């Protein structure tokens, strides 16, 4: 399972950005990634919230699972400051984490990472369902979602850059080109998506990235909002 990135904003502080502009409209992440000619293989949602409670992490997690996923069996891994519940499934694995802040025993965080390999599932519905679960703890809960596409060929970085540029040229995104050692990444903003984060005074609510996997012998394309929240 891909590692969840908790520090979402830190990702963008490392980017060297070049401003460009695109025109048209983003109807959904599904429509956007369809312009990359990749096959959608996975839809993922990550949501987290901060709250205060004297209840133990284990009791909070147990009650949360019972309220929202009582038909699923989770394995639990507990440490001094956190507990992780994992539902292992080839179709829709789920990871739930409840942790205690270092500064206060009553200051807590809860996060849900939900992945679904059934590509007909609507990402907006998945996103709202997970958000509602976290809203019971934090009315300002944050949520991000992404879609993963797959192309069964080895694309070079230049080809990936051209592919993502073409994909975003069909949208109304004001975007930035970011370069990394092993992947190509773009981030930007569109009025068609509601969630956003502020980085260095700029609003960001869309990220697209591509990378060739030597292990899987294919190229993966990620599209996420407000950013991609898994390691790639």
Automatic annotation (TrEMBL):
<protein>
    <recommendedName>
        <fullName>TATA-box binding protein</fullName>
    </recommendedName>
</protein>
<dbReference type="Pfam" id="PF08680">
    <property type="entry name" value="DUF1779"/>
</dbReference>
<dbReference type="InterPro" id="IPR036209">
    <property type="entry name" value="YwmB-like_sf"/>
</dbReference>
<dbReference type="InterPro" id="IPR014794">
    <property type="entry name" value="DUF1779"/>
</dbReference>
């Amino acid at each position: 399972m891909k590692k969840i990135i908790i520090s979402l904003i830190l990702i963008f502080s490392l980017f060297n950005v070049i401003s460009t502009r695109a025109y048209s409209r983003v109807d959904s992440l599904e429509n956007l990634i369809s312009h990359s000619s990749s096959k959608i293989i996975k839809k993922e949602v990550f949501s987290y919230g901060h709250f205060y409670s004297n209840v133990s992490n284990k009791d909070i997690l147990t009650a949360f699972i019972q309220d929202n996923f009582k038909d699923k069996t989770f394995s639990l891994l507990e440490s001094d400051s956190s507990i992780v519940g994992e539902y292992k499934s080839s179709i829709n694995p789920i990871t739930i984490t409840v942790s205690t802040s270092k500064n206060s025993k009553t200051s807590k965080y809860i996060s849900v990472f939900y992945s679904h390999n059934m590509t007909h599932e609507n990402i907006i519905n998945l996103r709202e369902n997970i958000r509602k679960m976290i809203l019971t703890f934090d009315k300002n809960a944050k949520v991000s979602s992404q879609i993963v596409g797959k192309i069964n060929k080895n694309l070079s970085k230049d080809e990936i850059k051209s592919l993502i540029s073409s994909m975003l040229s069909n949208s109304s995104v004001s975007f930035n080109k970011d370069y990394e050692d092993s992947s190509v990444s773009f981030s930007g903003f569109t009025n068609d998506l509601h969630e956003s984060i502020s980085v260095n005074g700029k609003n960001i609510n869309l990220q697209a990235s591509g990378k060739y996997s030597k292990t899987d012998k294919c190229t993966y394309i990620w599209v996420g909002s407000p950013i991609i929240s898994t390691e790639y």
